[in-house]
Amino acid sequence: MAKRKTLESKQKISGYLFTLPFAIGSLVFVIFPMICAVVFSFAEIKNGNGFLGYSYSNWGFSNFSEIWMETTTFRDAVFTSLTEMLYNVPVVVIFAFFIASVLNQKFKGRGFFRSVMFLPVIISAGLIVTLSGDGLIASIVSSGDRFSETGSGAAIQVTDVFKTMLEDMEIADWMVDLIVNSVANISNIVSMSAISIVIFIAGLQSISPSIYEASYMEGATRWETFWKISLPMVSPLILLSVVYTIVDNFNGSNNGVITQIHTKVSQVAFDTASAMGVSYSLIIIAILVVVFAVLNKVVFYQD
Amino acid sequence: MSTLAKTNKKFDKVKFKKYSLKYTISTVRLIFLIGMSFIVLFPLFQKIVFSVMTSSDLYDATVSYIPKHFTTANYAAAWQKLGGLTVILRTLGLTIACSLLNVACATLVGYGLARFKSKVTDTLFLVVILALVLPSDLLFTTRYMMMTATGLTDTWGPMLLFSATCTGFKASLYIFLMRQFFKGQPHALEEAAYVDGAGPLKTFISIMLPGAVSMMITIFLFSFVWQWLDSSYTSIFMKNIELISTTYGKLFTDLDTSALSTLNVSLTKAAGVIIIISPLVLLYAFTQRYFVESISRSGLVG
Q1: How far is CA B113 from CA A22, A166, A280, B275, in A?
Q2: Are residues B300 and A202 in contact, defined by beta-carbon separation less than 8 angstroms?
Q3: Among the ranges given (A268-272, B34-38, B100-104, B226-230), the one the predictor scored with the smallest mean pLDDT
Q4: What is the pLDDT of residues B228-274, one digit of tens each?
Q5: Of A130-139, A279-288, B5-14, B145-154, where does the model show the most confidence?
Q6: Coil, strand, or helix at residue B14?
Q7: Looking at the predicted structure, is the pLDDT value of residue A197 above 80?
Q8: Do the chains contact at B301 and A33, CB–CB below 8 Å?
Q9: CB pairs A-B closer than 8 Å
Q10: CB contact under 8 A, B248 and A127
């Protein structure tokens, strides 16, 4: 019995050793900066010789009132990114799920189409976003390049015809707007979906084919197996994909709020930057908690 | 005789219906996928075409995709503006160093979090999620102060430290993926190794690591891409060191400000984009088959 215990404690120690790099790193570079950011947001920071070479004075809520009450740029940016998120997340998740189900079927050239659909992970990140306006892929509709003069002109006409067609069908206005905007915005949606497509393909592949076989034997149609098997089985991944898309939307380098905080940091306005960061993080965490709580009830867990 | 013909006819009708449906579905699927691929590939194609054009081709209405005056001058200009071979090699060095450190750290920590359950590792996993969710700009303030206080700004130090501890850009995602991967692996092999007297480290290196190669390649790919294209970290911690992320701004400017030069700038920019992403596309071409394989084996579902 005593020997077993030593093995267990040995295991515990090696567990600590394996996780040591991140344990130290997160204390120094995540937890400590996080606490500091909260403290800084209540102070006025100037060059001086206090903690880490700065001096702190005027403790209070002045930074928060500055960014929320006195100026409107930060407030507007937060509002914009919230509305964008509200519209982007469902569209991206549904689109990614649809593409993943198509790419999961067996057909010739599947490998090619798969690698093309994952390409946005590479060509719509970081610098490329700045270099081509909204990302390489988005430049297909919005670039000021010569090709788009004829190209986007045609696109607008097509969407106009499409819009009148939908309106004639007497579909609700908000739905028409949603569909038309998604079509016009397709390049952005494709580039945001890449990671979710990978997640969903992985999920669809992990469903055992015997479940489908059994249900076909019982006379189920494809439509029924989609709703009763595929969808519930990948629903934990829908949660993952929703959370990832929300975080990606909020923390992307072309998000208006992030660029504002980033400018403040490079202008050495650490107090305002911290207040912005803290407010924004609280909003993100609140939204994620709500989304997780709601979706977690709908998600089907196999065991 | 007549009944046989009848059944034959009926059979043909069923067969026809079945096959026509099948072909309709696959045709629609093909058209749809070609459309989607077009959206992804066309901008790339467009940049490639632009990058070998001269500005007179842009004015020429008869030129749309095939340039009349093929030139490599744009590449030469973009190459020079980006800083030439030294800057490219320096960025490559930093990117490879950071990616290798990220992979090493993520693999160790992911294994630790997946296999050794205790209160400490559970809390650490929550920190991983927290680091994933928090906007990195929130942490930049203190990190910047710490780095200036220790005199590490404008050296490779900050980036290497962040990578070695997996606290850099999206790095906790790598730990998350690794943990999920190791959680999906069977215990039996490790138990056998323990019974034979191997320690945890030896078990990890000789039993678990060989199976994790595809996941490690995937994480290397992600890490390489995001580090190579990163402008937020390098613009704060390494702003005086010439890297692609600090020199690419020069692609937007030209000393000559005539109308013709704005066209030239857009051509140079196209060439610059192609130079910047070509190593990534090359890397992707070699590693993409590990991509889905590794994630589908990571047991994300369970």
Answers
A1: 10, 52, 29, 39
A2: yes
A3: A268-272
A4: 888 778 888 888 888 888 777 777 776 655 656 667 777 777 888 88
A5: A279-288
A6: helix
A7: yes
A8: no
A9: 295
A10: yes
CA–CA separation, A272 and B141 (whole Å): 10
Q: Quote the Cα angle for A90-A93-A97, to 5°.
A: 140
Interface residue of B108, B118, B142 to substitute, partner A, most A CBs within 10 Å:
B142
Full set of structural domains in chain A with CATH: 61-298 (1.10.3720.10)
Closest residue, chain B, to A194 (C-alpha): B40
A217 has a pLDDT exceeding 80: yes
Is B81 at the interface with chain A, CB within 8 A? no
Where would I find the H helices in B208-258?
Answer: 213-228, 232-237, 244-247
Report how far residue A77's alpha carbon sits from residue A279's, in angstroms, rounded to the nearest whole number.
13
Interface contact B39-A137, CB threshold 8 A: yes
Instruction: Please report, for chain A, how many H helices and E strands are present, in that order.
Output: 16, 2
Q: Where are the domains of chain B?
A: 2-51, 76-296
Q: Hey, are the CB atoms on B39 and A24 less than 8 Å from each other?
A: no
* Phi, then psi, of A244 in degrees rounded to 5: -60, -45
How many other CB atoms are there within 10 angstroms of residue A263's CB atom?
A: 12
Q: At the top level of CATH, which class does the domain B76-296 belong to?
A: mainly alpha
d(CA A281, CA B138): 8
Confirm whether the ipTM is greater than 0.85. Answer: no
State how far residue B1 is from chain A, nearest Cα, in angstroms: 34
How much of chain B is helix, strand and coil, in % rounded to 5?
80, 0, 20
- CB within 8 Å of B157: residues ≥ 6 apart: B147
Kindly identify which residue of chain B lies nearest to residue A12, measuring between CA atoms: B116
Distance CA A254, CA A266 (A): 16
**pTM attached to this predicted model:** 0.82
